[in-house]
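Newbie here. two chains, one complex. Structure please?
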Amino acid sequence: MPLLPRWWRLVLAALILITLPILVGYVWLVLAALFERVHGLVPAGSLSLKNWRFLWMGAVEERPSIWVALKNSLVFAGSVASLKVIVASMAAYAISRLLFPGRGVLLGLILVLHAFPAISLIIAIYYILRTLGLFDTLLGVIMVKVALELPLGVWLMKGFFDNLSWEMEMAALADGASRWQLFWRVALPMVRPGLLALGTFAFISSWSEFILPFTLIVSGQNWTLAIFLQSFREEAFVDYGMLAAVGLFYTLPILLLFMVGQRFLLNIYGGGLKA
Amino acid sequence: MRGVVPFVLPATLLIAVFFLAPAVLTVYLSMTDLSVVTFRNPGWSGLENYRDLLQDAFLGRIFVNTIFYVVLTLVLFNVGMALVVAILTSLVPHRWGDLFRALWLLPRMTPVVAYAFIWQGLMREAPFGLLSNITGISQHWINAAPWATVIAANGMIGASFGMLIFTSAIRSIPNELFYASAVDGASTWQSIRRVVLPMLRWPILFVTAYQTLSLLTSFEYILLLTGGGPGFYKTTVWSLYAYLLAFGSYFGNVQFGLGAAMAAVLVVIGTVMAVIYLRVFNFRALVAKPKIEVV
């Protein structure tokens, strides 16, 4: 808004003050990961490589090595992101561009599910995965995660397709291209910013996901980084230094990704909804 | 029309199996005696789980906890703090505004477990915990002030949703309105009160409605920070209780049926509220017919 009061520096100071608790948390995480001991935000020991010993620690009992957990997290987040982008785009394109029986119902369903709190379904999801033999598999959690976030994805991609001028498509249609070809060759490349935003969002949200893998995965070889980190928190003696190092190792990629994709992500975190 | 099937089939299948079916199944399972013993072959038990729930000595407490948690988090952070951040970031130059909005998004982005661990670290006893050092009172702050911790930790994440919605609403206010109020000699504060806040009435209603539902069902951070304690159900809310009944080992025997009954209540509330939102927030405009087929 075109209101820049003369005392805006005062406002800035207030902003810094209320944002401080957030910043302090990340500063602490970095310090705690690097030093032997940290008192508040003051390092009270020397730099410590010992905090990072998890990097060369092998599997201990059920806990796999971090590299297995890292690989699983990459597979999980990567698969969810790519599946979600493709499946959501296809459905969104149909809803945006084609008139078919049940279109209204499908769109209505998507909107209701978008507002519906999916996490309350976890007990039944557990039962379904057990029944399908997908319990304790990465594939199962991947499909669940994609399904639960599809409504948001379809809704967002529909917005992108709606905004596309369709002269290009008309021309291609006139040249005898099928809808299917049209979608892959003409429409999809034109919504690349949307694909990128949705993909990045899905990657971040799956990378950070806790409750689904925690509930639906048991075996160590299928653990993601979230469960790996949590397993240290559950120990009787909590080694804060090492936990901070694992936490930093786990959080850093997301922070970098966010910095790169920040601008086009803002819209999605508002739920893709303009009120 | 046959051409449409490949487009919508994958999405429809995934949603049907992993979203719709669980919703229906939750209600069904809530009427069975499903437990570890009867997992393969649960027996029908009608409304027995619901009767058991009503007789649960802790249900009243959990109900009160849930209301307390949802209302306080919503008022203080998801709407309150969101409003403050949205307005303050609109009063500073753009690049600063963007920077602070991005910072407020960080907690939402941060892996759930890592975020909980950061709180755990800051709330330790002296000399390690920052809060203990600042206040001079050395205690395990999560145990000493479990509600404050849970509400603040959730709120710092929850505020960003409202912040984004309110910011885009503020940006869509026509500039003329601000110039007009400036010409009338209004101070910044008066402009905020007379121009901005009235325009935010609708977005505030929207965020309140939307976030009530999500707070009602979210339990991840409570599970990780306090586990529902300390002591007997101090910070246990409805959705967490449902989860613990079904998956928590400290009940000895996991009771999926009972957990499902509690979850079913949330599913029904969630469905009803989601449908109401769509009615209120202009469903017809959202499902307008596609352009290309009209021509």
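Moderator note: The mean pLDDT of chain A is 87. Strands of chain A lie at 38-39, 42-43. Thread marked as resolved.
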